[in-house]
Amino acid sequence: MKKTFLSTLLIVVSFISFAQEKVNFSDNFKRENKGKYKIEINEVKELIHIMIAITNYGKENDDMVQQQGQYYKDIRSYFKPYENEQIIKTFDSLMVVSPYNYIFLTGNAISYDFKGNKLIKSDVYDFPAMGVANIKIDKNPITTYKSEIEDFAKQSKFRKFYSDHKKFYSEIISDYEKNANLGKQWKWLENNFESKKDSYIILCSPLINGLNYTTGFNNNNFSLIQMNIPPLDNYPDLTPLENELLNTRVMFTEIDHNYVGAPTEANEELINQIFADRKIWVDENAEGAFAYPNPVKVFNEYMTFGVFVLYCQDNYDKDTLDKVIGDITLLMTDRGFPKMKIFTENLLKMRSKYPNEKIDKWYPEFLSQFAQ
């Protein structure tokens, strides 16, 4: 029986809050990345994903670790002789203590780069994953286990495995560049919200399954949005349009947290008043509902999916929009947000009333509809 890892952690994506002061965006970094986005399968991060995948915890969680496909088979075969190494047992114990350690380990992996068999500190990322939800850590776990990770990589010849799979990684990156529409989503969000972001990076892994997370960094007057998400899906039983909508929703509802947050914060007092009666807005019997403990978090989850509906209204025909609304309503209701239908209806009314206004501007009037 597989553990239901995502039943408690899928909702983490809304609450990622990595410390922004632990990055260093130099003037040269800013020049190279301003107005650009990139997709990367980071070598050290992929090593950490592999190490987690071969722990007992990882092997028992196919919702956390993608266990379908040849790549996972390659990993299990190649790294099988090293599954009982002490560092793998240590990672396993960390995951048992708290699944949030999945994020602390994979999120901080980018703070190091390989130089031969050694890990050297990144010039850009010092301690990028310090907190998630209400949990904070005060030491980078990659630093703590640096020598053990180096030993594992050397003994297992990880860098050879990574090199041998570069063609596969390149195909994943190419698929994103051709089909993800990140630039289109970015442009739409900045046309519809007042917030502006300077750059995006997708840190992908073939081993990521349902646990996706995003964060934003601000340093030296430069804002970077980082997304940790799986490769694009291409289900043979879905039409090309259905696959596009699924992949777009996964990415879009990560990105738009970074735009919804500012107007929500500006209207926090009103949201706390209107969404105070929790039993109206949240089905406490739904798994994961506990992770949205206050009105602001509840509202933001409604809003991030609602804004995806607005994006679809602007980019697809009416039949497609109607299907999206139905699918989103069902998904959110199953997740414990029973008022998604009326929320969406009110959102569409406001958009119709103010088609050319930034969404931030009509937040108060939109919220007032629920007070009635």
β-strand amount = 5-15%
Total beta strand runs:
8
Major sheet: arrangement of strands: 1-6-8-7
Shape: globular
Uncertain runs are 1-20
- Count up the helices: 20
Gyration radius, rounded: 21 Å
Helix content: 40-55%
How would you characterize the largest beta sheet? 4 strands, mixed
N- to C-terminal distance: 47 Å
Mean pLDDT: 91
Question: How many distinct domains?
Answer: 2
Sequence of secondary-structure elements: HHEHHHHHEEEEHHHHHEEEHHHHHHHH
Structural class of the helix and strand makeup? Answer: alpha/beta
Provide the fold topology:
Blueprint: H1 6-9, H2 27-33, E1 36-40, H3 43-53, H4 56-59, H5 70-78, H6 86-97, H7 101-108, E2 112-115, E3 118-121, E4 131-132, E5 135-136, H8 141-144, H9 146-156, H10 158-164, H11 166-179, H12 182-192, E6 199-204, E7 213-219, E8 222-229, H13 240-255, H14 257-266, H15 268-274, H16 278-281, H17 295-315, H18 318-334, H19 340-353, H20 363-371
Parallel strand pairs: 1-6, 6-8
Antiparallel strand pairs: 2-3, 4-5, 7-8
Signal peptide: 1-19
Keywords: Signal
Protein name: DUF4932 domain-containing protein
Describe the overall structure.
This protein has helices at residues 6-9, 27-33, 43-53, 56-59, 70-78, 86-97, 101-108, 141-144, 146-156, 158-164, 166-179, 182-192, 240-255, 257-266, 268-274, 278-281, 295-315, 318-334, 340-353, 363-371; strands spanning 36-40, 112-115, 118-121, 131-132, 135-136, 199-204, 213-219, 222-229. The chain is of the alpha/beta class and 372 residues long. The protein has two domains: 6-173, no CATH class; 256-371, no CATH class. The strands form three sheets. It has a four-stranded mixed β-sheet with strand order 1-6-8-7, with helices on both faces. A two-stranded antiparallel ribbon has the order 2-3. Strand 2 (112-115) and strand 3 form a beta hairpin. The longest helix has 21 residues, at 295-315. The N and C termini lie far apart (47 Å). 38% of the residues are buried. Residues 1-20 have low confidence and may be disordered.
